[in-house]
Specification:
Largest sheet: 9 strands, mixed
Number of domains: 2
CATH class of the largest domain: Alpha Beta
CATH topology of the largest domain: Rossmann fold
Strand content: 15-25%
Radius of gyration: 25 Å
Oligomer: single chain
Number of helices: 14
Structural class: alpha/beta
Shape: elongated
CATH superfamily of the largest domain: P-loop containing nucleotide triphosphate hydrolases
Helix content: 25-40%
Length: about 400
């Protein structure tokens, strides 16, 4: 992805200066007004620019992007096939497309220009990012998530990582065709969702947990009341009229006003839900989630980060104990009772997302977790059943 055909750095900087000079005595204009001002400035300077009409339009876009968007990486933001953008300093810009990483040939002029762009971008959303607060997170209106780190914490230059929300929702047929899951395993999980089995999905960042959670949610009967709880609203449940969507809120610039996942889970318990779907648990809110799973809300679903099904239970144990005063043996017992199935999703070296393992959580023995593996992906090629059909039928219809 290249910048426009002319060498625009000097011209863009000059036009940006003129635009800022034009609005310095005005209340911050909205996007449409700013675009009009940029167009007028470029028109006024047209005789000295000696640019074609196409280049003038490109220059106007670049000036606008430098003031209100993300400057040279904005084309990557606008490309729907790009799912993640990684800026490792002014000249090392990478992006993910179709599960693979590529190095872009675009670059910022220097570290100062990159730092100015991202600081202004975060400031426009009331997220402080400066020397006093060199690390900050931002949730964009479209659901994308951005993280930025400034020097001296990042000695090689400002770092920006943007996880884009594509809005693409895959149905189960598409996932089967892509080799993400086998047809038999898909039918099994469909029955488990309909019969209100509690399911926990785990895997690494970008492995497809939220995408598959969205797909599984499509099998929830339409007459149930469902409450979804997320960091950023990514779930898109169809066909459920009695749906309540809750979204966490980051603290404001003064550090106040934060609404956590844990507080939303507690609020959801008072909303008479049939099921609670939590986008992800990563901390002490796991204790609230565990209590919800054991207080009459079967069929709930959640995701978390882990390298395997068993490791997810171990991580959950630590997170629950950090958020409650329950002893270890009580946590193990309650998690074993609250979760029916664990699904581990992974991303292969060639960028494909696949289900690596589906396990059933059995009653704990001697305060230790006991899992029964139902499906395993051997060699990353195909999800294979490793138990008999009667076992699957028993699991999908009743708690083992």
């Amino acid at each position: 992805m290249k910048q426009s055909s002319y060498n625009s750095d000097e011209i863009k900087e000059k036009m940006t200066y003129y635009v800022l000079n034009s609005i310095k005595n005005e209340v911050s204009p909205n996007d449409d007004k700013l675009k009009e001002i940029i167009s007028n400035v470029i028109s006024d300077e047209a005789p000295s620019l000696n640019l074609s009409l196409q280049d003038k339009r490109a220059l106007a876009i670049e000036v606008f992007n430098s003031l209100r968007r993300l400057d040279v990486i904005e084309p990557l933001m606008q490309d729907p096939s790009v799912t993640e953008i990684m800026v490792n300093g002014p000249t090392k810009i990478f992006y993910e497309k179709n599960g693979r990483l590529y190095k872009s040939d675009i670059a910022f002029r220097d570290s100062n220009s990159l730092q100015t762009v991202i600081s202004c971008f975060f400031a426009n959303s009331n997220r402080p990012l400066n020397e006093a607060n060199p690390i900050s997170d931002l949730r964009l209106p479209d659901g994308s998530r951005a993280n930025a780190v400034l020097p001296p914490v990042a000695p090689d230059g400002p770092i920006v990582t943007i996880r884009k929300f594509t809005g693409i929702s895959h149905d189960i047929v598409t996932l089967i065709r892509q080799g993400f899951i086998s047809e038999e395993a898909a039918r099994f999980l469909c029955e488990c969702v309909r019969n209100k089995k509690t399911i926990f999905l785990c895997g690494g960042t970008g492995s497809g947990k939220t995408t598959f959670l969205n797909t599984l949610s499509s099998f929830i009967p339409s007459d149930e009341r469902v409450v979804t709880i997320e960091d950023s609203a990514e779930l898109n449940l169809q066909g459920i009229s009695n749906l309540v969507r809750l979204e966490a809120r980051l603290p404001g610039p003064d550090g106040n006003g934060e609404i956590t996942i844990g507080s939303l889970i507690r609020a959801a318990l008072r909303m008479r839900p049939d099921r609670i779907i939590v986008g992800e648990v990563r901390g002490t809110e796991s204790a609230d989630m565990m209590h919800a799973l054991n207080t009459g809300h079967p069929g709930s679903m959640c995701t978390g980060h882990a390298n395997s099904c068993y490791e997810m239970l171990e991580r959950l144990t630590g997170m629950v104990m950090a958020g409650s005063s329950l002893p270890f043996d009580a946590v193990v017992t309650q998690l074993s009772m609250g979760i029916d199935l664990l699904i581990h999703i992974t991303r292969t070296k060639d960028g494909r997302r696949i289900i690596d393992e589906i396990s059933c959580v059995l009653p704990s023995v001697g305060h230790e977790y006991k899992l029964m593996s139902l499906y395993e992906n051997k060699g990353g090629n195909k999800l294979e059943r490793i138990c008999d059909i009667s076992t699957l039928e028993r699991i999908s219809s009743s708690k083992v």
